[in-house]
């Protein structure tokens, strides 16, 4: 466990250094691409925190991403609300967490687990997307809402405006680093240990005195809150929000990001999202219709060659080198 933690921290430190150095070699467009990929990486980490630690797949996780995005848009577009950016982020996190708490309470305390939970959350995502389309007077319908202002706030008398590429990149990268490190700290502590026990045998964990439904609910709510935060950040950077941000396609894509990066690693899904988003931008610039086919091929190859995700490459290389050194 100590060696695994050390490896994780080493990879995390390398990623932080690369994130710091990247603005020196990238132009404005490349910064925006990686910035948006980092936001999707934060979204993927939120799913991995729940799916990776409990073994229960939420197939409608994009619903929380969309809820956060719509709340952020509605708050910031209302000029009568002071401190729109701050209140919008707080509302996005709170709104997504509240919806997750309501749904999760009935599911977890009702004993819904496994594939049944996945199906219910899938339906939740479909309902959320349909609500965004139908409630056009509030959500803008199929067209969504546009003209969402960028995040701005005051710190110590200094006005911070994230409409520029570099400040927005630094802001997003810092949030992703802090959140991922925080989730990792929770996962490696007592809370994560109990979640692992619940995943292995919920009945036995309950017999040891752990309130399994409550722990699953809290983990689900925290995961949804982070997804709402990611949604709020994304709509402010993109300047628009649409029903697709809460739909089935995004829910499927985030599962692919987690699987490619490595489920249960937290950092792997962030790298998986960046890798896939960057590859999509590059390949689509040559042939847009070729990207879905290549994505499917990459996913199949990774499942067979790297079932633990791309983050396991480091562990495999290290084990290979240690094996060679020990060989006389």
TrEMBL record:
Compartments it resides in: Cell membrane
Cell membrane in keyword set: yes
Full protein name: Branched-chain amino acid ABC transporter permease
Main location: membrane
PANTHER family hit by this protein: HIGH-AFFINITY BRANCHED-CHAIN AMINO ACID TRANSPORT PROTEIN BRAE, HIGH-AFFINITY BRANCHED-CHAIN AMINO ACID TRANSPORT SYSTEM PERMEASE
Bilayer topology term: Multi-pass membrane protein
Matches recorded under CDD domains: TM_PBP1_LivM_like
Top-level division of the source organism's lineage: Bacteria
Any Pfam family the entry gives: BPD_transp_2
Regions crossing the membrane: 7-26, 32-51, 58-77, 83-109, 116-135, 166-186, 216-242, 254-276, 288-315
Source species: Mesorhizobium qingshengii
Keywords of the record: Cell membrane, Membrane, Transmembrane, Transmembrane helix
Annotated signal sequence range: none
């Amino acid at each position: 466990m100590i060696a695994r933690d050390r490896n994780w921290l080493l990879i995390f430190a390398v990623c932080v250094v690369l994130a710091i150095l990247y603005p020196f070699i990238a132009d404005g467009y490349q910064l925006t691409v990686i910035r948006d990929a980092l936001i999707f990486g934060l979204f993927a980490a939120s799913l991995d925190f729940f799916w990776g630690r409990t073994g229960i797949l939420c197939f409608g996780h994009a619903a929380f991403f969309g809820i956060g995005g719509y709340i952020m848009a509605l708050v910031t577009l209302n000029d009568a609300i002071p401190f729109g950016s701050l209140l919008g982020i707080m509302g996005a996190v709170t709104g997504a967490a509240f919806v997750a708490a309501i749904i999760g309470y009935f599911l977890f305390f009702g004993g819904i687990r496994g594939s049944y939970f996945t199906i219910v959350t899938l339906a939740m995502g479909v309902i959320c997307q349909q609500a965004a389309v139908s409630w056009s007077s509030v959500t803008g319908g199929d067209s969504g809402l546009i003209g969402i202002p960028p995040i701005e706030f005051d710190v110590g008398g200094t006005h911070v405006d994230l409409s520029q590429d570099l400040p927005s990149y630094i802001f997003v990268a810092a949030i992703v680093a802090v959140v991922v490190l925080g989730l990792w700290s929770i996962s490696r502590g007592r809370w994560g240990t109990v979640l692992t026990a619940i995943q292995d045998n919920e009945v036995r964990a309950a017999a040891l005195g752990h309130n399994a439904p409550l722990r699953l609910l809290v983990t689900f709510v925290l995961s949804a809150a982070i997804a709402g935060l990611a949604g709020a950040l994304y709509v402010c950077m993109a300047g628009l929000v649409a029903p697709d941000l809460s739909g089935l396609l995004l829910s499927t894509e985030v599962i692919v990001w987690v699987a490619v990066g490595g489920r249960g690693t937290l950092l792997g899904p962030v790298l998986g999202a960046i890798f896939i988003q960057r590859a999509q931008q590059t390949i689509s610039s040559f042939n847009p219709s070729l990207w879905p086919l290549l994505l499917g091929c990459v996913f199949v190859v990774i499942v067979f060659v790297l079932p633990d995700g791309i983050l396991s490459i480091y562990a495999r290389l290290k084990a290979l080198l240690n094996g060679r050194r020990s060989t006389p």
